[in-house]
């Protein structure tokens, strides 16, 4: 059967044929598809999983492919460059070359170490033997990206310029630098006819190989190729075989210690290999050969070029083609060419007939699953002698030999780069095989390389102690001390952290291009080095690292060498005696910092880096979900450090106790329905301390009720009257209260009824304070209620006001008794699956509240958005810390198209395709009725809430979402700056909300705000417990404390609810739930306009006199001063003043 998508594809093919052959006849339009068309349909289904993905690939290729027919200025420039190269006169200078070049205002880009002053060999210049285009441009695999693309021009230096031993002691690189300086001098000369911005740059970040970079200057001349958005790179090369290849084998030494002035090196160490040095020379000798190899692959495989484009886009988005890494598009192309080449048995891993997508997926599969450490890859057989696979493997982490068997194409790729590549490839391969979602954007359109989105931990290391670590032996093959330490650091961390982490990667600012008259830049030890960690959640917080047994002396010595004084020999309960490292932690938050503590120790032990030079923002961010310096009487330090265990234990005990009491109808279910029971409350729940609660000031008296839903067994004796059902519920509450207090005298219960005699909603509940100090607020669920409410709404007997009342009651019932318990169970399960989700939710809630957005974003809505980031991590792996989770949540808030797309969060993995279609249909109907997103600006759907109305039906409004996105963008910018600067103090800004945008501020008396103690930095004087004049009365008073305690009493929220009920049509209110002692307000612009006067206008008004002269109906305006006076009067005793910031 052909799907609708297949019919669309066939129609597109027919239209294409019509353009070629003219109008189609009726018979031609409906004739059977050809074999080619059927194959396309089959490929779209089996290979791409959907026609949409295939079309997206085709569209992407058309967008990133450059138009080679519009490169005339570039082609002219390239031809002119060739004529300039041919016209440069020969030079032969034995001495004073530096002074000679300075006359042309050019500093020769000699690599470090600089050449000695008593040079005994000659420098010279002759025009290039060959000038060739190499790289992507002649192969037609250039890809548009965030930056310009490169046009590479190789200039082969004549072999007569070199002597037999020039491969030693940097002589080749010095002559190469001089050659490129002469070229620069010729191009800079005004006689050249070119007006270009010319600078030096390192080729692939190899500090031994400078090149020239030519950029256009927008002068609109015939050589202005600025529209091409590219730069030209001039790359000096040499003839293959110029130096005896055996002398450049990976195990050979070509930098003598005496040349570097290293007299302390022993005779044995002086023969240490210089594989990086040797690889740099060999790589300069083979670019044309490599281009020919790629050309042959492109010739034999029609889709090779398109697959290269896809690979480069993928690499670009992951930071592999920005010049900071050695793995680039060239290596991707060579690996794909290797996979297309028949192996020793004649089989191919990739077939020439594959589509570009198949080639891309096959290459990703190979990168993800091939063990490069054990199985090196090679296009041509190793040349033998000193070029064996074992010789390459012993000197390079990544071995990929070209067709000659001599050149390791990946000789400059570090181990952590390879690990990062494989990590990204594994994640991508999983996405390519996931047919449940469309991952196209994640694969090709999203930028993945930003530190604060990519890594769970970002460690910033400043002021590397280069002198104490950069040994004389290291100097032989590592001319840059900074880069040497940076390469060694991930190796040590990988070894020490072991299975705690999935990836350790480094990142630092590399040397960019520099002017022709400037010296070669040197990496400064003050350049910050960033270490990114992706944690393995199963082992990240492990308290003990076990090493080898005492009997394995060699391995034990290695373990002690790795950990230093942190290692110790211990006997464990299983009887084993092993070397180990034990981490002491007293709280859940401290467990999350074990990785940081281990990194700090390893860097200090191996690199002498002081702990003050190591910054990690993870811990600083999580400090914001801890109560700030509360007095010991209020905060039990022991309980606060064990997280949610006490409240979970108290609930489980309460569950058992409820089951044991006798009731007319037994309890069939007891369900948690509160953030405290799903690991998502901003603060870990604090038990009520009866001994001191009465002596606490009002600013510290808030007690959080923990919602629980009780379900009774079914019975046919429940009445068919909603009011009567509420009365029977109250009777059950009294019965449960009596049963608990009689069975458990140390429990305190209170039955509360907040409704009236005619209330049809569930307005009563039972508060139970258990001995552990937590208060559970119990509500009884009765399925008879929802039936009566639905029947009443469906019938015709209700008046319009009664119908509204029934609808509100039904929505409240579903929220309290269906959606919230289910939501709690799902979030609790996901938090157990992803331990750091709890931190992400808590930090995110704190952020929303700190910016006074809490009245507009329900806790459940925030939890769903956070859960989405973990369930659908997209281009990244799932978050492994609250730090990266919080960043990605803000990224989602700012980047998701809330106006045109719902956010579908499948918490229990049960949403079917038909239900997804239903969600989209309901969303489209909603947007059709509310085009400007005044209500339901965020639609978050779940399997229990397909229309997304439960948690976001009325709020946030569109204007609130706009503010949230603005604040999220500013926060992310601040977060990026904090990461780059390693500044903990910068993080404080992200929880400080700007107040200047509000029209007025209602300031409250902090002493009357019962949640004041939850603010970031409360005044400790306001939350200290009151003393007692007669201590012998304290014990007597404590017995009545629980009965007199007002559970969940928050006067600020009550006041806010009252003024919202009265003035929400005119004013948008903002408030920080967690300790805020201020309410902000913004007048709705539509309500400030003049309106015709009428009786019962609904607000205090004044006439607009100047416009009433010629009008029959007078106009009125809101009486703002009077309204604010009424707002202040309603808060008498709580409101201290109202500050007007913007006059209207």
Structure report:
This protein is an alpha+beta fold and 1144 residues long. It folds into five domains: 66-242, Beta Polymerase, domain 2; 451-543 and 583-623, Alpha-Beta Plaits; 634-851, Beta Polymerase, domain 2, CATH 3.30.460; 853-992, no CATH class; 1000-1028 and 1035-1140, 2-Layer Sandwich (Alpha-Beta Plaits). The strands form nine sheets. Strands 3-4-7-6-5-12 form a six-stranded mixed beta sheet, sandwiched between helices. Strand 8 (377-378), helix 15 and strand 9 (400-401) form a beta-alpha-beta unit. Helix 14 (356-369) crosses helix 16 (415-432). It starts with a helix and ends with a strand. The model is unreliable at 1-22 and 1028-1039 (pLDDT under 50).
> Could you say which structural class the secondary elements and strand pairing correspond to?
alpha+beta
Shape: elongated
Mean pLDDT: 88
Strand order of the largest sheet: 3-4-7-6-5-12
The name of the CATH architecture of the largest domain is: 2-Layer Sandwich
Q: Span from first to last CA? A: 65 Å
Unreliable runs, pLDDT <50, ≥5 residues? 1-22, 1028-1039
Sheet of most strands: 6 strands, mixed
Number of strands: 31
Q: Tell me the number of structural domains.
A: 5
**Helical fraction:** 25-40%
Rg to the nearest angstrom?
Answer: 36 Å
Q: How much of the sequence is in beta strands?
A: 5-15%
Helical segment count:
39
Assign the CATH class of the largest domain.
Answer: Alpha Beta
At CATH level 3, the topology of the largest domain is: Beta Polymerase, domain 2
